[in-house]
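An instance noted here:
***
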Amino acid sequence: MSHPRTLHALTAAVVVAAVTLGPAHLAAAAAPAASAAAPAVPAVARAVPAQDLPSVDQLRSALLTAADLGPDYTEAPSSESPGPEENPTPVSGCDALSALINMRTGQNGPATPHAEVELDGPDGNPMVTQSLTAEDPAKLTSDFNTVSDALKSCHSITFNAGTEDTVTFTVSPVALGDRQDAPAVRLDGTLAGVQLNAFVGIERFGDVGMAFGFFQRQGADSQLASLQYRTAVAKVERTLGVAAGSTAPATASPTGSVV
């Protein structure tokens, strides 16, 4: 493919909406499209102290590794994973989702422990991304609902990474894992005559939010995306000791890395 970096920029931008789970002002970015229907979290809600949240190291141990996916996968160094700051990608078509994707805010730090990984198949195809962010449960609920609503309300979205690199994805809901209520969508588009397909899903595990992305070119089969999503969910459940879909913090300390 003649646009490898463009493809990376596009796919990285697609998953930003889920990766940015965590910042307290996330919901405000989508306010124009999301309206004021959702009640605000009371200001008196007790914030969970950072030391009560899973640490960055614990989150990293729960991430997928190349060994989890197979011998043909390699982990991309973080410096090689371009973000929208490095490759600006204007997005239009879904007001709420576009607002989230176009918004960039720092989220690493003791208040919002965060870890992420990109795993590439041969020649970068497919590409799997996963991020985990720990946050006060009340704030995570608000952020999770904001992203979920943005995904559900989107039917077509356009990424413009350059004069010749514009692609419009059709967006449709899909069930990636065993939980039918877990928000997930598939995106289908074409760039320079090459078929592009993506699956984006979000899930929560108590006070940890997960964003999962699966991106492939010249293919649209959902079976591998679903298998790898299930692998990601199972590893987080084992490692952190919290069931997918749970809204309550873990009652026991995370179990640590599981091989």
About this structure: The first strand starts at residue 74 and ends at 75. The radius of gyration is 17 Å. Residues 31 and 37 are 10 Å apart (CA to CA). Strands lie at 74-75, 91-92, 114-120, 127-134, 156-160, 166-173, 184-191, 194-205, 208-217.
